[in-house]
Please model this.
Amino acid sequence: RIGAYISNLSVSMMDPNHFLMIMLSRFELYQIFSTPDYGKRFNTENTNKDVVQQNNTLIEEMLYLIIMIVGERFSPGVGQVNATEEIKREIIHQLSIRPMAHSELVKALPEDENKETGMESVIEAVACFKKPGLTGRGLYELKPECTKDFNLYFYHFSRAEQSKAEEAQRKLKRQNREDTALPPPVLPPLSPLFASLINILQSDVMLCIMGTILQWAVEHNSYAWSESMLQRVLHLIGMALQEEKQHLENLNEENVVTFTFTQKISRPGEAPSNSPSILAMLETLQNAPHLEVHKDMIRWILKTFNAIKKLRESSSTSPVPETEGNIIEEGSRDQDKAERKRKAEIARLRREKIMAQMSEMQRHFIDENKELFQQTLEELATSTSRVLDNSSTVSDTKLTALGPKQTRVTERRQVVTCILCQEEQEVKVDNRAMVLAAFVQRSTVLSKNRNKVIQDPEKYDPLFMHPELSCGTHTGSCGHIMHAHCWQRYFDAVQAKEQRRQQRLRVHTSYDVENGEFLCPLCECLSNTVIPLLPPPRGLFNRLDFSDHPNLAQWIRTISQQIKALYILRDEETASKSEDLILYILKYGNIILPKGFRPDFQPNLYSESIKEMLTTFGTATYKVGLKVHPNEEDLRVPIMCWGSCAYTIQTIERILADEDKPLFGHLPCRQDDCLTSLTRFAAAHWTISSLSSVQGHFCRLFASLVPNEKSGNLPCILDIDMFHLLVSLVLSFPAIYCQDFSGVSLGTGDLHIFHLVTMAHIVQILLTSSTEENGMDQENPNGEEEVAVLTLYKFLCQHTGSALKEMSSGWHLCRSIKAGIMPFLRCSALFFHYLNGVPAPSEIQVTGASQFDHLCSYLSLPNNLICLFQENGKIMNTLVESWCSDNEVKRYLEGKRQAIRCPKSGGDKSRAPTLCLVCGTMLCSQSYCCQTELEGEDVGACTAHTYVCGSGVGIFLRVRECQVLFLAGKTKGCFYAPPYLDDYGETDQGLRRGNPLHLCKERFKKIQKLWQQHSITEEIGHAQEANQTLVGIDWQHL
Model:
């Protein structure tokens, strides 16, 4: 700034021509501009291009210096400005490059002696603040009315910034359908001491320099000049015109305009050269085809010239002679109009010619391929009519997911494309297996008791999930499909690549090959197994024939007989290997098997390739869910598969409920594909498992609701999550049904199981609800439903030894039941939708108050759920009595059993206090005092806490750094933008700027959504792939 001030002061005290001659001498350019035919010398091929390039660069720099001297007058004393206008100009030119955040803008602006920029006082006058979204920062955008103050040759621009600013401003003008010219802005008047500076622009030497460069451009010699040089000359001419226009507009009687730039550029050169005037050369360049980018600027100059001419005429300050420019300007307008018309006509004819050629090619192709074209039309018409037929059938009927009124839907052919070999294949039971990349992980997202851990995974029985959902197994997928053999080759290649690495170069990557992890070949999403694609498994052996439909009591009796027969046959097999065979024959020799029951039948439904993939995914779910070594023969494998299906559906239902979205219609494609494949897999896994073991699981699950003499030590009704029980019962029931040839439909079993579990869940809600009567208005206190609920509640009170609190209001109980059972019904609707393929009715694809009634209709339930107890009164009285007589139920009702809560404790002062965002525990991170030994290795407090709170995954807020930390295991982690923003929509990681921070609810919800969707591990993988420095951090010490 001081250098510019001294230059301005020196030039203002010198003769302009003398100053310019000194500059030509200093830049060693005098010889060039004093030689008339300099430009013509470089037509020959032996020209030294390096010398010419050097000369061009010197000319460009000299012109830039002149622009700086004349144009930089925003310093108090040089121009008639104040400090506020100076900072405004700085902000305008920074925002001309791109919209900027508050912190970026502060760094880019110059500071005064007090280390302040003064931005706050003027920013609202020149910029609009755009609030941040879920990502990014709040940005300041330049107001449209301030773009006229943009100066392409702003002296604080670097070359890169100048180029970006020019491109941004031209793009903005194109969007607004304006000329792309970037004229110099109107500058403030110079102070009296520096008023003579502008005479440089109309000095003889300056006019000679301008005329010479324009002459080179007219001659179109590619060596003697550059476009940058011409752009600077046009900018200087524009500056001179703006000055003259400003002088004329501010003219009064006392002043005389001495700045006559327009008159001087209208005069042709003197003899002997007789060169054309600057104005004439501009008219010539306006139509030059090689200067398309500068045409708008030249037009602006000519337009401004005419405006100044009119101003002079109106003011009559000095007569403006009729020059050749006036005549040329009139002629150029007509010429320009004719040229544009001619080009438009040429373009129209060319378009017509191309369209005619394309039409001819289409006709020629159709003539050559008549048969193929006709066949395609027929197939299209057939498929369209088929779709219309199906849609009309489905839309005209009431959609029901199960039961006698189950909607029959014809399954369409599913043809998919492998992302690795690009080969298409139909999904069929006897074809090669197609698979989806998937990621299975342990999860505590829905946990209500984070202190509960599996002590001995080898002996743990996962058959019954506790309602606390302390730890589940979640499955996610990116939705990309491969052939099973293509995936196997790809995974083998990834393993071989890792093994070829030298040990000394091996570092932690975003995926762990030893644990079966890999990146999806297409989207690089973290995966650790694959889910096989299957056709609807129920369609393979299920007949929707409800002609011989037994009621619930008859069905329970039949199933109990079949279970008893299975127990007998299993005992017979055991006894045949022992010495008790004689005693066994004496005891059970007269047992007759139920009608149509053939326990010797073994199903075989899938190809070997699909069976292999069923085993692969089942083993992976078992290994990850229990944290044990893979063992495909373990009897718990099918249980873990059913549990993963149920838990994944529960998490998605919870996400949709939290976001207040309808149950259907708003799932992303990848989640929809994942649920479809996962449900079909879980429904088919029993076919590759030991049939007797799956039958044994069903017998124990069924005994938790319908006790028998061999039920043994089973959990009480309060210790079972009913949706997990429903999924496990429905998916294990085909192991019993496949040996039943009595003609009863599989759908009958699904319906009775669902009704039975629903009634158990209602009893569970009534036993555990803390409903209190209050003074709220009751809609229908004496309605049929309310009376039925009250009757059931009194029945429960009778069989629990009066441990239940007396209630006189059935309305409150009804509200409690509907609120408690709603998540179960929503999960059940998702489950049966993906299991049976029945489309969801439009009523539950939108949110509304009547969701309960529509869900009941879709699931074959009466709107009054207590009707289930009334329709099956005798059998249900027996079952409810058995449920309530359990000692654990009585202990709970008597208050002897309390729920365990997640502890929330504050810690001491520490260097790095860290808050767990999942459970609220305050931890001491990165401190040796709080290190813990985990699996034989010292780890930090956060890493140790993830294994207790989040099954190895955690989200933490580093309080003093205002930084969110994601961890997954011991070797993977990343930092994430915190949900705290300042007033300018920016985060302040490290608290360096010190601005007050406020919680942004939208960003907090985004972090919460990542946790609910089990996307933390995926987010870490993407972050580590994008930033390799994250791989080298010792995350286990945090």
Notes: The longest helix spans residues 324-368. Residues 913-1026 form one domain. The chain has 35 helices and 18 strands.
